[in-house]
Amino acid sequence: MSHPLFKVIPKEEYFLPGTPACPGCPAALGLRLLLKALGPKTVIVIPACCSSIIQGAYPRSAIKVPLINIAFAASAATASGIAEALELKGIGDANVVVWAGDGGTADIGLQGLSGAAERGHNIIYVCYDNEAYMNTGIQRSGATPYMAWTTTTPTGKREIKKDIPLIVAMHRVPYVATAALAYPQDYVMKLRKAAAKKGFKYIHLLAPCPPGWRFDSSKTIEISRLAVETGTWVLYEIEDGKFRLTGPSKGLIDKSKRKPVAEYLRTQGRFSHLSDEDMAKIQKIVDENWEWIKRWLEG
Q1: pTM beyond 0.85, yes or no
Q2: Which residues neighbour 229 within 8 Å (Cβ) at sequence distance 6 or greater?
Q3: What is the CATH number of domain 4-298?
């Protein structure tokens, strides 16, 4: 009897074993699931990031679909060109996907991302958000959360995390969603929904990084789950302008249903310097975000 997950996630593999990914790497797992979801008619565009290394050095690659490595700022522009070329050739059933980290999305790649979204190119842009520049030494990015340690914020980042999914949604694209590796079915279904739509689609995947976040490599999925259960990471989609919560997040509008944010923060060495006052402030930020969501749903 097949496992129920196979009803959503196929057995076929397009991400080969033996990569140089770190143990517990969320980027490797996220890309593996993406390829399972979208299948062999997929073209991957990867800017400078951990995945540039994970996918393998030329002339060998762990990816069984066409792939191009490109400069940090150019992934969305490159994918736009590929999508237009495929359309001119009459190839309408290929998925052109940007697979980029938060540095190449929230910071260095934001201009290209915005341009591609505004023009409405038929691509899927996936940001795997490990909340820092991990490949170059754990420097802070615009997506690094408030008070997180990085090598460039040794006493904790003082700015609040940039909300890229909502920035993209303001371009009025047909589909924006968030996802977490602890909920693979939710992630895969969102990828397939994005693939079924014409135009620019964006998915923002939480990617807990063991060396960068300072936790044991066996805990990647556990921390991903805690991020959702505490309400720190909200699972949602905005489809044709309509916002809705998905997965476990549907039941977390009521604060009493959410676990304390401190449970999530204490799992990670990057937050080990926090005082009780710091944790209370982060809890307040999370609660205020949920109040905003509640008002949006009430409409």
Answers
A1: yes
A2: 248, 252, 258, 259, 264
A3: 3.40.50.970
